Amino acid sequence: MSNVSIRNLQIQLGANKVIESLDLEVGAGEFIVLLGPSGCGKSTLLHSIAGLNDASGGSIEIGGRDMTYADPKDRGIALVFQSYALYPTMNVEKNMSFGLRIAGTPKAEIARRVARAADMLQLGPLLQRKPAQLSGGQRQRVAIGRAIVREADVFLFDEPLSNLDAKLRTELRRELKQLHRQLRATMIYVTHDQVEAMTLADRMAVMKGGVIQQFDTPDAIYRRPDNLFVATFLGSPGMNLFNGRIEARDGRTWFRNEHLALDVSGYAFRQPPADGQACVLGVRPEDVDIDPAGPWRGKVTLVEAMGAHRVLWLDFHGTQVAATVQDEVDGGSFAIRPEHVSLFDQATTQRL
Fold first, then answer.
1. CA atoms of 227 and 291, how far apart (whole Å)
2. Which CATH class is domain 4-232?
3. Per-residue pLDDT, 250
4. Residues of the chain above pLDDT 90, percent
5. Banded pLDDT at 179 (limits 50, 70, 90)
6. Which residue from 22, 1, 3 is spatially nearest to 62, judged by alpha carbons?
7. Strand 31-35 relative to strand 186-191: parallel, antiparallel, unpaired?
8. What is the 3-state secondary structure (H, E, C) of the chain?
């Protein structure tokens, strides 16, 4: 396994500057997820690490060696695409071993690697089948197996589960995490699916417009988002937002607007707030408690049954407020857990 070090990377496709001055440090053996909406540059970044896109500037090091302008075959990487890209006339064993055979790897070594990968991915009984005889999930396992047999230093995954149905995605997501623990390899994974990101990543980089907005553990990003984009991109439903101002007087700090006042004296401000500063209060739906004794009341407009829980939607003076509840509730009175809120500057959208 190898570390990946990206410094001041610049990627330009035609006249379009996709990435400008990006830095990213991936530790050896880490599972890193690049998360963001379509067009944010995450796949472009992955393809640049793989050598499929030329860098316009900066450097890419893999295992301490400068690979910025190296050919893909010389980078010690294995890449798994969204499409399976299997040879239809070859069986599973031949598909998995094709690259090794082309490289002149000894037959005994090929057999060892294929058997090992097949055992990891439960493909043993399918080795003589052709792709047309496999399900979508089995085909993606073969594509992953083809990468494993290379015994690469770094594995790159470009939205490999997006073509699968929800059940198969869940199963393969779990298998990928287990595979990482078995291989102890460095893995970089691209997705726009926040559930995949939150469950797979050791750390994840949330991207927007070719810029990494936040790079941290999934829990830290979810609980302490650095800006409003990260706060609203993660979470389903998204974070509840209230516009207001900071009131810092007599040793206490409050968030206030026309309809809501919340004591945020215990909030970990990055720097002392200014009295009267315009800000946005962010509250996750699970931190809104439906309580008959709650200080605020909204009108229930919708209840979404989600199986293990429900999402209650309230109209609070024109603002839609989502609350996650476990049981049926009656009424729209609610409270907010101040210890779990986030505050953002209205002008810069950065966390206070």
1. 29
2. alpha beta
3. 80
4. 66
5. confident
6. 3
7. parallel
8. CCCEEEEEEEEEECCEEEEEEEEEEECCCCEEEEECCCCCCHHHHHHHHHCCCCCCEEEEEECCEECCCCCHHHCCEEEECCCCCCCCCCCHHHHHHHHHHHCCCCHHHHHHHHHHHHHHCCCHHHCCCCHHHCCHHHHHHHHHHHHHCCCCCEEEEECCCCCCCHHHHHHHHHHHHHHHHHHCCEEEEEECCHHHHHHHCCEEEEEECCEEEEEECHHHHHHCCCEHHHHHHCCCCCCEEEEEEEEEECCEEEEECCCCEEECCCCCCCCCCCCCCEEEEEECHHHEEECCCCCEECEEEEEEECCCCEEEEEEECCEEEEEEECCCCCCCEEEECHHHCEEEECCCCEEC
For the entire predicted model, the pTM comes to 0.91
Name the amino acid, one letter, at 145: G
In the chain, the percentage of residues whose pLDDT exceeds 70 is: 100
**CA angle 10–75–20, rounded 5-degree value:** 5
The residue written with tokens 């793989």 in the block is: 50
Domain residue limits, the chain = 4-232, 234-345
What is the average pLDDT score of the chain?
92
Q: Which residue do the tokens 């650095």 mark?
A: 226
Q: Distance of alpha carbon 160 from its chain centroid, rounded?
A: 13
Structure tokens, 17? 């500057």
Q: Has residue 329 got a pLDDT over 80? A: no
Under 8 Å between Cβ of 312 and 322: yes
